[in-house]
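F.,

This is the one I mentioned.
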């Protein structure tokens, strides 16, 4: 008889517009957004200094988009979520297993993402966001929503999973170097 795999952590989050946008803002505070904002500001100043107003306008536009793009996309995505979850509220359950996290937002479709695909993690006062890159969605959940485990233990667990990935990557790179050295 097969043993049923039990999750290491379970998080149940009641999502609403406020929590959703707290998570969106966390992702919007990425370094790349700040870099593009500064780039836009520099272009705007250079355009004004050289009286090239079209260049200045382009710089201002870049700075504004860098500041607001995540909010604009967030509103677009939230409106899509409202179509699936009338009233803009929904329950979300995340199950953290040894190699993956599974999220169920009550739509009948479970989303699975593997820890080795984690690109970034963001934390706010109430929310935690795990970003898995372009292929997989980000998963946001309430830090106080754990029914099995807690946030501090989960963060330590996620860090350990990422260390495993880094160690495996380093071992593969060392193996390739040894093989290349043996071939020459």
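My design for it:
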């Amino acid at each position: 008889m097969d043993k049923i795999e039990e999750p290491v952590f379970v998080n149940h989050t009641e999502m609403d517009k406020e929590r959703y946008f707290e998570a969106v803002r966390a992702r919007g505070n990425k370094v790349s957004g700040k870099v593009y904002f500064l780039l836009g500001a520099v272009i705007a100043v250079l355009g004004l200094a050289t009286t090239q107003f079209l260049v200045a306008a382009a710089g201002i536009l870049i700075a504004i988009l860098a500041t607001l793009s995540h909010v604009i996309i967030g509103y677009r995505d939230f409106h899509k979520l409202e179509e699936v979850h009338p009233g803009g509220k929904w329950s979300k359950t995340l199950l953290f297993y040894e190699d993956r996290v599974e999220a169920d937002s009550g739509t009948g479709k479970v989303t699975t993402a593997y820890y080795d695909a984690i690109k970034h993690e963001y934390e706010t006062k109430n929310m935690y966001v795990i970003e898995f890159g372009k292929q997989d969605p980000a998963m946001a959940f309430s830090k106080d929503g754990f029914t099995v485990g807690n946030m501090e233990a989960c963060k330590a667990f996620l860090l350990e999973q990422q260390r495993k990935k880094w160690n495996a990557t380093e071992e593969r790179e060392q193996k390739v170097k040894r093989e290349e050295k043996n071939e020459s």
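The CA atoms of residues 115 and 150 lie 18 Å apart.

Talk soon.
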